[in-house]
């Protein structure tokens, strides 16, 4: 079966992570993605082959000097035969290279142009790397233990989230049947993902508060807990979960969500003591059959070993495959394009 995006051609002028990740997701679903690279190649090729492969499998590549008349002429030809163009660069560069809908609609009125930037096409050229955006949107400030410094996650959450959002915006405009400009910024995406945190502040004046061990602001107990060996993530969101967990752990009391929230410190003390009687892996084996959300903290190698179905081969590279499963369709993973393709 052909992929759901078979017949869709997407051009990418992408750099590093967010843009290339967005178009790779679409390529995995069957779209034809043509990566337009400068004469020296996209800069992420310099990071290393496995890095480049992780963001650029299933694509074609063409080298164009978009600062030249010949490069612009070839770009126009490609636009005339494509459904969308996704670009992630500084706004001034996007405009200077003519990579907006206003500049390209003369070649194809139905072209969808997606500009993935730090702060929007009119937001200026200030650097907008992943960690900078996490700092600027309050994410770093609300992450970590109360007595510790602000903390960043161990992967590029802002870039990946913005890539996902850009892919959604691109497809939405294609489905509409209209060409046009679509904008997605790292700043907007990360603020939008603070949904209930932002709502609590905007409507109730509740500012985000850090709790030890990554504890949830509403649910108790919902955090990481030390065990006799390793850490356990336990996420008790309603009274049914609590009843089942308390029965297995030999805990009494705190029957309602309101009681557990009001007596947070007492609940956490009792739960911590109970969980010390077994290992994280042991608790996971005991709690999962009861339907209780719990997982031992694993390393990335451990997680990949336990989920081999997510590891795919693309040429000489072993990569994490697509997370989107479409009935009757199995992606074929091709290696990233050589620069001379």
From TrEMBL:
Keyword set, alphabetical order: Transferase
EC identifiers of the protein: 2.8.3.-
Protein's UniProt keywords contain Coiled coil: no
InterPro entries reported for this sequence: CoA-transferase_III_domain, CoA-Trfase_fam_III, CoA-Trfase_III_dom3_sf, CoA-Trfase_III_dom_1_sf
Classification via Pfam families: CoA_transf_3 (PF02515)
Single annotated GO MF: transferase activity
PANTHER family per the UniProt record, alphabetical: SUCCINATE--HYDROXYMETHYLGLUTARATE COA-TRANSFERASE (PTHR48207:SF3)
Name by which UniProt lists this protein: CoA transferase
Source organism: [Mycobacterium] kokjensenii
């Amino acid at each position: 079966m052909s992929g759901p995006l078979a017949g869709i051609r997407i051009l990418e002028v992408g750099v590093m992570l967010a843009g290339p990740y967005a178009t790779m997701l679409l390529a995995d679903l069957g779209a034809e993605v043509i990566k337009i690279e400068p004469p020296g190649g996209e800069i992420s090729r310099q990071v290393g082959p496995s890095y480049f492969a992780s963001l650029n499998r299933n694509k074609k590549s063409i080298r164009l000097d978009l600062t030249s008349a010949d490069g612009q002429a070839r770009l126009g030809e490609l636009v005339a035969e494509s459904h969308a163009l996704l670009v992630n660069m500084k706004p001034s560069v996007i405009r200077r290279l003519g990579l907006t809908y206003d500049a390209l609609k003369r070649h194809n009125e139905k072209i969808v142009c997606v500009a993935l930037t730090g702060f929007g096409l009119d937001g200026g050229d200030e650097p907008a790397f992943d960690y900078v955006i996490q700092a600027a949107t309050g994410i770093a400030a609300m992450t970590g233990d109360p007595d510790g410094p602000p903390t960043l996650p161990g992967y590029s959450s802002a870039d990946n989230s913005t890539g996902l959002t850009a892919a959604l915006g691109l497809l939405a405009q294609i489905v509409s049947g209209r060409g046009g400009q679509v904008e997605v910024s790292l700043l907007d995406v990360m603020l939008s993902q603070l949904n209930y945190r932002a709502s609590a502040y905007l409507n109730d004046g509740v500012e985000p508060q850090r709790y030890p061990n990554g504890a949830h602001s509403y649910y108790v107990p919902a955090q990481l807990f030390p065990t006799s060996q390793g850490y356990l993530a336990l996420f008790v969101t309603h009274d049914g979960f609590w009843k089942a967990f308390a029965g297995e752990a030999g805990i009494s009391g705190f029957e309602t969500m309101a009681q557990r929230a009001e007596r947070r410190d007492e609940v956490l003390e009792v739960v911590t003591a109970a969980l010390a009687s077994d290992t994280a892996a042991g608790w996971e084996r005991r709690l999962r059959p009861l339907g209780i959300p719990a997982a031992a903290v694993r390393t990335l190698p451990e997680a990949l070993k336990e989920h081999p179905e997510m590891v795919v081969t693309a040429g000489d590279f072993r990569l994490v495959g697509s997370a989107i499963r479409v009935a009757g369709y199995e992606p074929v993973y091709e290696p990233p394009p050589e620069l001379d393709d």
